[in-house]
Structures are given as structure tokens and as C-alpha cells.
Amino acid sequence: MHDDRPAPSWAGDVSVGVDAWTRRASAPASPPPPDPVAAGPDADPESVARKILLDQLTGQARSRQQLSDKLAAKNVPTDVATRLLDRFEEVGLVDDGAFARSWVASRGAGGGRALAKRALAQELRRKGIDDEVAREALDEIDPDDEEQAARALVRKKLRTLTRVDDVVATRRLVGMLARKGYGSGLAFAVVRDELAQAGRDALDD
């Protein structure tokens, strides 16, 4: 029995047949139609802002100004940002007073940076903390603790200055304390005393 069907166009040429099959096998599948239920409605600005705030506050306190700046960077409308920040303040999630006290405790005389009041005040101002709120937190610093922190800084730094003369050592030590916010009077007094205890002479102020 003879098959009267016409031969395919690629009959007799294996390479043509392979090409035709390869094109069919590699043709990309048509993408499925969009699913409106799975996509869901666009998130409303308040929900977006609330998630941003909660993410920012996870594991770390932040000032109201820091949070406000973050919302603005994410294009959250000002009225939505203000309303949510007010609400977060009401429930205690945003508290500039607590933030200031925590900042001073972690970076002041008893913290890792051993910064003096002046430097701490500048940092708090950059964080958007009101001057009066900052002053209340800074007033909790004990002057004796601040002096002891300055002495600890000088003693540590002094160990690296054994190869420089006393004049250079004095200038470097006083400069270091100045950068950390210590006043010149306290800085010179501490440096002079610590150099004397180490058997060295301080430069007159």
C-alpha cells in the first residue's frame, strides 16, 4: 500500500528537519495572563509608611526627625507622615527624650566614644533633637565622670606617644580632647596632670 501524502518540505534534508524541530522545541511559552486577584490592590501610603517606620525602629531607637527624613526619602506624603509619627509618639514608639538619653549613655563619658557634652550636643542637634530635650539628657552627665573619661583617653593615647617630645605630645593630647568636645581648660589640666604622672612635662596653655 502506497502513502499518497505529500512529503514534508524538509524531506531528504536532515539538517532542515532538525532546524524545524529545534525551533518548535525552543520557542518560548506564552506568558500566562495577569491574575488580578494575586496582584492585589496597590498598597496605600499609610500602610507603606507604617512598615517603613516599624522597619526603622527594629532593634534601634531613632529620633522623630530621622524617621521623618526617611519617610520623605520614600516619597510618603507629608500629611500621612505627620499623622503616623504623631500616633507613634502617643504610644511611645517614638520618644526623642528617651532617644537623647540613650545616645548620651552610649556615646558619652560612660560609653564607647567618651564624648564630652559639647560634642554630644552637636550630634543630637544633627539628629533633629530639640535643644531643650538635649539639654535635659546632657544635664544627667556627672562632671566627675566626664573628667575621668578624659583621663582615660589621655592615658591610652599617651602610650602611643613615647617617641615624640613633650611639646608635641601635649598638643596632640589636647587636640584629641578638643575633637571629642572637651573644653580647653579641662583638657590642659588633665593633660598636664597625666604627663606629670608619667614623668613628662606639659606645654604651658
TrEMBL record:
<comment type="similarity">
    <text>Belongs to the RecX family.</text>
</comment>
<feature type="domain" description="RecX third three-helical">
    <location>
        <begin position="145"/>
        <end position="191"/>
    </location>
</feature>
<comment type="function">
    <text>Modulates RecA activity.</text>
</comment>
<feature type="domain" description="RecX first three-helical">
    <location>
        <begin position="49"/>
        <end position="87"/>
    </location>
</feature>
<dbReference type="GO" id="GO:0005737">
    <property type="term" value="C:cytoplasm"/>
</dbReference>
<keyword id="KW-0963">Cytoplasm</keyword>
<protein>
    <recommendedName>
        <fullName>Regulatory protein RecX</fullName>
    </recommendedName>
</protein>
<dbReference type="InterPro" id="IPR036388">
    <property type="entry name" value="WH-like_DNA-bd_sf"/>
</dbReference>
<dbReference type="Pfam" id="PF21982">
    <property type="entry name" value="RecX_HTH1"/>
</dbReference>
<dbReference type="Pfam" id="PF21981">
    <property type="entry name" value="RecX_HTH3"/>
</dbReference>
<dbReference type="InterPro" id="IPR053926">
    <property type="entry name" value="RecX_HTH_1st"/>
</dbReference>
<dbReference type="GO" id="GO:0006282">
    <property type="term" value="P:regulation of DNA repair"/>
</dbReference>
<dbReference type="InterPro" id="IPR053924">
    <property type="entry name" value="RecX_HTH_2nd"/>
</dbReference>
<dbReference type="Pfam" id="PF02631">
    <property type="entry name" value="RecX_HTH2"/>
</dbReference>
<dbReference type="InterPro" id="IPR003783">
    <property type="entry name" value="Regulatory_RecX"/>
</dbReference>
<dbReference type="InterPro" id="IPR053925">
    <property type="entry name" value="RecX_HTH_3rd"/>
</dbReference>
<feature type="domain" description="RecX second three-helical">
    <location>
        <begin position="95"/>
        <end position="138"/>
    </location>
</feature>
